[in-house]
Specification:
The complex is a heterodimer of chains A (341) and B (285). Chain A is an all-alpha fold. Chain A has two domains: 50-89, no CATH class; 92-297 and 314-340, MetI-like (MetI-like fold), CATH 1.10.3720. Chain A is built from twelve helices and two strands. Chain A has helices at residues 9-13, 31-71, 74-77, 91-122, 125-137, 143-169, 189-214, 217-224, 230-259, 262-267, 286-293, 300-334; strands at 81-82, 87-88. A two-stranded antiparallel ribbon of chain A has the order 1-2. In chain A, helix 4 (91-122) runs parallel beside helix 7, helix 7 (189-214) crosses helix 9 and helix 8 (217-224) crosses helix 9 (230-259). Chain A is flat. Mean pLDDT of chain A is 84; it is low at 1-16 and 334-341. Chain B is α/β, with parallel strands linked by helices and 285 residues long. Chain B has one domain: Rossmann fold. Helix content of chain B is 36%, strand content 23%. Chain B has helices spanning 2-12, 70-76, 108-114, 130-141, 146-159, 163-166, 179-191, 209-222, 235-241, 264-269, 274-280, and strands at 32-41, 44-54, 59-63, 88-96, 99-100, 115-118, 197-201, 227-231, 244-250, 256-263. In chain B, strand 1 (32-41) and strand 2 form a beta hairpin. The model of chain B is unreliable at 1-27 (pLDDT under 50). Classes of the chains: A mainly alpha (341), B alpha/beta (285). The complex binds adenosine-5'-diphosphate and magnesium ion. Magnesium ion binds at residues 70-71, 202 of chain B.
Chain lengths: 341, 285
């Protein structure tokens, strides 16, 4: 067949540098309309997000309204949740959510960052992809599977080994020791935080890894050329350059931990006893409280109170995100200051 | 082994240089000598058999077309290549004041403390202030007092001809300066650790002509006290700043070799090799 590129009419009709006349410069008919339609579609898509958010919030506000007006501030300050006496205070749930999420953050950030550093800086090249892939595979495990594993495998180990160890070692230390008091039950806030940490680890690793890979080689080499060791280059140049992104990775992990329901519900103990300050207390998170109770909320006030918990969860998530963002902002803003102090 | 044999021979009797270079520890200042240096990226050889003497307290320019191995070569002079991407291997010797920096007992980290480097693009640390950028290297080896910090910052910024421009914004981020100022900040940062030799890989290629002129002036002043090796693709720049110039070229095999090295005036006016003549006349590259 003689159909090579050289015989193609479009190529032979014009010498290579010939101008093809006005046709090349004229707008295709409908081109502008096409642009407008596409711009309109993207705008609609962009507007849909706040619209959905608003709809969710409105629905929550309307359904939660009876409980909120009846209990007022005590809905968030009271620790009594008694559907028989129709007393609904959500403080232990809020406390459980904040404590387990922060614990997850505290545990997952250093481990996740460490894993990301190993993958990007230390692992032999051929190990990097398998290690990263394995960690990110954690993200594919359904929450309920984590919950089952947590219930059958994690809680016994926590009860028999980890918690007695922490009580013996950290327990006597002033201040932080208060976090590890009381009997080790295995199903408590601490175990809830640990399982959340495992669940948000892939997020922290994946984002941190991307952030670390985005640090220009020149930053690292700039420090090495001053006579830094590899670790000094990482701690002196790479991590400071990447810190806003690493904080972002931690926030994304935190956001996931705040709303996580199934696995936590299975290991946290689901008991709304008094807030003790010890992590070894069984508790609830807001999400686990909703999951446990929305089914049995058979009267209007009880149902309204459960929806109220959901509304608060939404507000707490928003506030935590805001707080974290302010933190990042202040860190990056103050980055260059105080250096000559 | 023939390689070892020829290396020893080269040590005892250096390559027949085309010009007389006074060198050796008897002169004040730090000198370097490169003996039969070859570099590979994996299986591919990038540089072959370079012999060179770097005179103390002088600027040595390395010129040549893009891809001829200039960066590869200069990064071998402080073992910077070992931290970069690409599996690479080096054979031959690089001596600093007569000591082989590739000897098994030598710590590459310490080598880089003695032989500093300024890169093609300015790379200040954006999370640090101007002042902290200057003392970043100092903090690696000591815990300087505030007065030591202040003294070093002023002295090095002054040496880098930057003090007057930044003395009122020492606590601003290093990234807030202009490109030319950033590059001089990087030079100040390199000077703060009192290096024996300063390597520069096309330090002006990302800068405008005015900033370039300032850096060139700076190099001319710095070479009174420091031994400088500068890679440049700008032949005028080599003529303006360098006492000695080395011309690198990659042949068809894409392996870079040192074609000719001579005092700068001589290399440009009376090149001994016809390839050098063609290059400096602008006939290729
Ligand atoms: N990291 C690397 N891996 C593989 N080959 C490289 C690497 N860096 C440079 N090279 C090759 O080595 C040769 C010399 O490159 P380089 O030293 O950067 O030249 P120059 O600085 O003179 O432009 C080029 O052919 C380049 O493709
Ligand atoms: Mg180069």
């Amino acid at each position: 067949m003689a159909t090579g590129p050289t015989t193609h009419p479009a190529m032979t009709a014009l010498p290579p540098n010939a101008r093809s006349g006005d046709a090349a410069l004229t707008r295709a008919p409908g081109g502008v309309d096409g642009d407008r339609a596409f711009a309109g579609a993207t705008l609609a898509a962009a507007l849909a997000v706040p619209a959905i958010l608003l709809a969710v919030f409105l629905l929550l506000a309307i359904d939660a309204e009876p409980a909120l007006t009846r209990f007022g501030a005590s809905f968030v300050t009271s620790s009594t949740w008694d559907n028989v006496k129709e007393q609904f205070g959500t403080l232990p749930y809020i406390y459980g959510t904040v404590v387990t999420s922060l614990l997850a953050l505290v545990l997952a950030t250093p481990v996740g960052l460490g894993a990301a550093l190993f993958i990007t800086e230390y692992a032999p090249r051929r190990l990097r992809t398998p290690v990263a892939f394995t960690i990110e595979l954690l993200a594919a495990i359904p929450s309920i599977v984590f919950g089952l594993w947590g219930f059958f495998a994690l809680t016994p180990v926590m009860r028999s080994t980890v918690e007695p160890f922490l009580k013996a070692t950290i327990g006597p230390v002033p201040v932080v020791g208060a976090l590890f008091q009381g009997p080790s039950l295995g199903k408590d806030l601490f175990t809830g935080g640990v399982i959340l940490a495992i669940m948000i680890l892939p997020t922290v690793v994946a984002i941190s890894r991307e952030v670390l890979l985005a640090v220009p080689t020149m930053q690292r080499e700039g420090m090495l050329a001053l006579g830094a060791t590899k670790w000094e280059a990482i701690s002196g140049a790479v991590l400071p350059y990447a810190r806003a992104g690493i904080a972002g990775a931690a926030i994304l992990g935190l956001a996931r931990a705040l709303g996580e329901t199934m696995a936590v519900t299975m290991v946290i103990g689901n008991s709304s006893r008094k807030i003790t300050g010890s992590l070894l207390t069984p508790g609830y998170t807001m999400a686990s409280a909703i999951a446990n109770q929305f089914n049995e909320a058979d009267n209007e006030l009880y149902f309204s109170a459960v929806v109220g918990v959901a509304a608060i969860l939404l507000v707490v998530s928003a506030l935590v995100n805001l707080f974290a963002r302010v933190l990042i902002w202040s860190i990056t803003r103050n980055a260059a200051q105080g250096a000559r102090a | 082994m023939t390689a070892t044999h020829s290396q020893i021979e080269a040590l005892v009797r250096p390559e027949p240089v085309r010009h007389h270079v006074p060198h050796g520890p008897e002169l004040p200042g730090h000198w370097m000598q490169v003996i039969n240096l070859s570099v590979w990226y994996g299986a591919r050889q990038a540089v072959e058999g370079v012999n060179m003497t770097v005179r103390p307290k002088a600027a040595t320019a390395i010129i040549g077309p893009s891809g001829c191995g200039k960066s590869t070569f200069i990064r071998c002079l402080n073992r910077m290549h070992e931290v970069g991407a690409g599996v690479n291997r080096v054979s031959g010797q690089v001596l600093l004041d007569g000591h082989d920096i590739y000897a098994p007992s030598v710590d590459p980290v310490k080598v880089r403390r003695h032989i500093g480097m300024v890169f093609q693009r300015p790379n200040p640390f954006p999370s640090m202030s101007v002042a902290e950028n200057v003392v970043a290297g100092l903090r690696l080896v000591s815990n300087p007092t505030k007065s030591q910090v202040d003294e070093t910052v002023e002295r090095c910024l002054d040496q880098a001809a930057l003090w007057d421009e930044v003395k009122d914004k020492l606590s601003a981020s290093g990234a807030s300066l202009s490109g030319g100022q950033q590059q001089r900040l990087c030079i100040a940062r390199a000077l703060a650790v009192s290096p024996d030799v300063l390597l520069m890989d096309e330090p002006c290629s990302a800068l405008d002509p005015i900033a370039t002129a300032k850096i060139e002036q700076l190099i001319i002043e710095l070479k009174r006290d420091y031994t400088i090796v500068i890679v440049t693709h700008n032949m005028q720049q080599a003529q303006r700043v360098a006492d000695e110039t080395a011309f690198f070229l990659a042949a068809e095999d894409r392996i870079g070799r040192l074609v000719e090295m001579a005092p700068t005036g001589q290399l440009f006016a009376h090149p001994a090799d016809e390839r050098t003549a063609a290059y400096v006349a602008g006939r290729f590259g």
